[in-house]
Amino acid sequence: MTRSVCELLYELYAKTIVLVTYMLIQLILIIRYLKSNTPPISTTQYLSFIEEKNPAIHCTTRLKAEHIDCRVCLSEFQEGEKVRNLNCRHTFHKDCLDQWLQQYCATCPLCRHKVLPDHVVANYNLLQNQVQEEEEEYDGNDHQLIFLLSALRGGSTLHTYL
After folding, report:
1. Structural domain span for residue 75
2. Backbone angles phi, psi at 68, to 5 degrees
3. In total, how many domains does the chain have?
4. Does any domain span residue 60?
5. Which of 20, 129, 144, 158 is an S-S bond match for 150, by CB 3.0 to 4.6 Å?
6. Could you list the residue ranges that cross the membrane (predicted)?
7. Is position 16 within any domain?
8. For the chain, what is the radius of gyration of the CA atoms?
9. pLDDT band, very low/low/confident/very high, at 161 (cuts 50, 70, 90)
C-alpha cells in the first residue's frame, strides 16, 4: 500500500514538473512575442503582399505563346486563366504559385529568385510556426511524458519508469 502511494505521489510530482516547465516555456514565448517590433503576418496579408508585388493577370494568346505550361502543376495555360508573371520572367498559375510561396521559401520554383523580401517571409513563417506549435501540444501520451522527464532529469527518469 505504501509503495503505491509513493508511486502515485512521484507520478503527480513528475507531471507537476512537466506542467510548470510547459507553462514557463509558454510564458517565455509570449514575452518574446510581445517584445518583437513586428507582429506575424497572417495568410491573408501574405497573399495580399504577393498580389501587390506580382499582380495576377489573365492569360492571353500572346502570353500563352511565350509560356506553354505552369512548371508547378505541369498543366498548359488556358486563355483567360489567372497567372502570375514573376520578375525573373517565369510564369505560373496564380493558385499554384500562391500555394508554393506559402509552403516553401518565397522563391521562384524554377530559378529560386526571391519573390518577396526576407522580412515579410520571416514574419509569415513566425505565424506559421506558432500555429504549428499549438497543433503539436502535449496530447496526454505517457510515452511523451516519460521522454520529457528523462530529458529534464538527464536520462535517469526513463530507467525509473521502465
Report:
1. 41-138
2. -80, -45
3. 1
4. yes
5. 158
6. 12-34
7. no
8. 25
9. very low
On whether residue 2 sits in a domain, the answer given is no
Q: Name the nearest CA neighbour of 63 among 103, 93, 40.
A: 93
Which residue is it, cell 509503495? Answer: 3
Pick left, alpha or beta for residue 75 (phi over 0 → left; psi -120 to 50 → alpha; otherwise beta): beta
Q: Residue 66 belongs to a domain with what CATH number?
A: 3.30.40.10
**Considering only CA atoms, which of 77, 58, 75, 57 is closest in space to residue 67?**
77
What are the helix (H) ranges across 36-117?
Answer: 43-53, 61-66, 94-103
| pLDDT tens figures, 50-81 | 999 999 999 988 887 788 889 899 999 999 99
Residues listed for the chain: 162
Report how far residue 145's alpha carbon sits from residue 143's, in angstroms, rounded to the nearest whole number: 5
How far CA 7 is from CA of 122, 151, 152, 160, in Å, comes to 46, 20, 19, 11
Evaluate whether residue 159 is within a structural domain: no
pLDDT digits (tens, 9 = 90+) for 75-102: 999 999 999 999 999 999 999 999 999 8
